[in-house]
Design brief:
Structural class: alpha+beta
CATH architecture of the largest domain: Up-down Bundle
CATH class of the largest domain: Mainly Alpha
Number of domains: 3
Distance between the termini: 21 Å
Number of helices: 10
Helix content: 40-55%
Radius of gyration: 21 Å
Order of helices and strands: EEHHHHHEEEEEEEHEEHHHH
Bound molecules: flavin-adenine dinucleotide
CATH topology of the largest domain: Butyryl-CoA Dehydrogenase, subunit A, domain 3
Number of strands: 11
Length: 393
């Protein structure tokens, strides 16, 4: 449980002291270490591996992992706060951070055996190794469970064949949590980049989130022992469902960090840029934009905080997690687009940060499951709740 109070300032909701300290240190780290390389990441599609290791040293990578495995022993709110601060400085580093820390590392901790935890978590927490999660395939995106990658069993060992596409961190990652078909069911395995039969495709050249490396991975007769299973054989759906809502709630803060940056840039530009002899912030049509941007930003963040809280109480709460990321991703795209409009012609020029922020803002309406699928999840969860007790919420 956490409590936040409604003392709202432009840079955000006030948090309890322990979280404020995490926010403050992540904010300083992001401004000092991430902001200076954010433009280079975008221009050159550059992934700052050294910076990732520094994030490990700060304790950000394994923030939800107990200290005995090299983590910081904190919680999901801390992870969300760090996610927002990193994303404020660089949406793409925020995406890579989310894939590593939440989709891979936290999932491995929650579902992995003692053997897997001890073997993989310390190096993932320190940033020595980079983690990734492989679910999507060329022919199975939204319909993820129709995957074709197979792990054929023979006397307790498995042979992995197939491929995964659009995988965040794949071009650099050492450790992959990969879902594969085991007969009629799905099983998650740990795959190492050094495994015989593992290979990577070319890194994708993306519209936004550049510098967060995205790629394809191939499995050609990779031999995996039983100990590489995360959770139970044929328990893939359980592992997936155990983390999906948490992932949605935490990843909302990728969008929220991007939105906060767009809002800050827009407010400062609107106050300084003069036309017709006065700052453009004096014009009602610009004021209307700023008012809506702020309102959407604060409401998306408050909702995401509440959804995170609810998901921690009930991991199967798909209604609020899906609604939070739907709203945060739409709000972020809206805020960044309006911010670009406030910049006028300058907003359309690559030298101006808002141009990158706008491109980055689009991704979370697609990645980690599309907004169409989130709407489907929300609607189905709502109907189920109403049918359940006849009274709704
Ligand atoms: C930058 C980036 C990073 C990513 N990182 C990862 C990662 O780390 N790991 C991973 O496993 N995946 C990752 N993904 C994949 C991502 O999760 C998928 O792209 C996403 O789930 C959609 O799948 P798809 O692209 O195949 O689109 P499709 O599923 O083919 O969808 C195409 C369109 O049809 C719509 N649609 C599909 N089904 C329905 C339906 N039932 N009702 C209504 N509309 C529907 C979709 O909403 C979409 O608009 C990443 C993607 C990107 C772009």
């Amino acid at each position: 449980m956490f409590i936040y109070i409604g003392n709202i300032i432009l840079s955000g909701v006030q948090l309890k002291d322990e979280y404020l300290m995490i926010q403050q240190s992540a904010r300083e780290f992001a401004r000092k270490e991430i902001m200076p390389v954010a433009g280079k990441m975008d221009r050159e599609n550059f992934f700052p591996a050294d910076l990732f290791r520094k994030m490990g040293k700060e304790g950000y990578l394994g923030v939800t992992i107990p200290e005995e495995y090299g983590g910081s022993g904190s919680d999901y709110l801390s992870q969300a706060i760090i996610e927002e601060e990193i994303s404020y400085a660089s949406g793409s580093l925020g995406l890579s951070y989310g894939a590593h820390s939440n989709l891979c590392l936290d999932n491995l901790y929650r579902n992995g055996s003692e053997f897997l935890r001890e073997k993989y978590l310390p190096a993932l927490c320190s940033g020595k190794n980079i983690g990734s999660l492989g679910m999507t395939e060329p022919s199975s995106g939204s319909d993820a469970l129709s995957m074709k990658t197979t792990a054929m069993e023979d006397s307790g060992n498995f042979t992995l064949n197939g491929s995964k596409i659009f995988i965040t961190n794949a071009p650099y990652a050492d450790v992959f949590l990969v879902y594969a078909r085991t007969g009629r069911d799905i099983t998650p395995f740990i795959v190492e980049s050094g495994d015989n039969g593992f290979s990577r495709g070319q890194e994708f050249d993306k519209t936004g989130m550049r510098g967060s490396p995205t790629g394809t991975i191939f499995f050609n007769d990779i031999k995996l022992g039983h100990e590489r299973i995360v959770g139970d054989l044929n328990g893939g759906k359980k592992v997936l469902l155990s983390g999906l809502n948490l992932e949605r709630a935490v990843l909302s803060f990728n969008s929220i960090g991007i939105a906060r940056r767009a809002l800050d840039l827009a407010v400062s530009y609107a106050s300084e840029r003069e036309q017709f002899g006065k700052p453009i912030s004096d014009f009602e049509l610009v004021q209307e934009k700023l008012a809506y941007m702020y309102t959407k930003f604060e409401s998306s963040r408050l909702f995401a905080l509440e959804a995170l809280n609810r998901v921690q109480n009930d991991r199967m709460d798909s209604l609020d997690a899906a609604a939070a990321i739907l709203y945060a991703s739409e709000a972020s795209e809206y805020i960044a687009r309006e911010a670009l409009q406030i910049f006028g012609g300058y907003g359309y020029i690559k030298d101006f940060e808002i141009e990158r922020v706008f491109r980055d803002s689009i991704l979370l309406t697609i990645g980690a499951g599309t907004n169409e699928i989130r709407k489907k999840v929300i609607s189905e969860a709502l109907v189920k709740k109403y049918r359940g007790d006849g009274n709704g919420r």
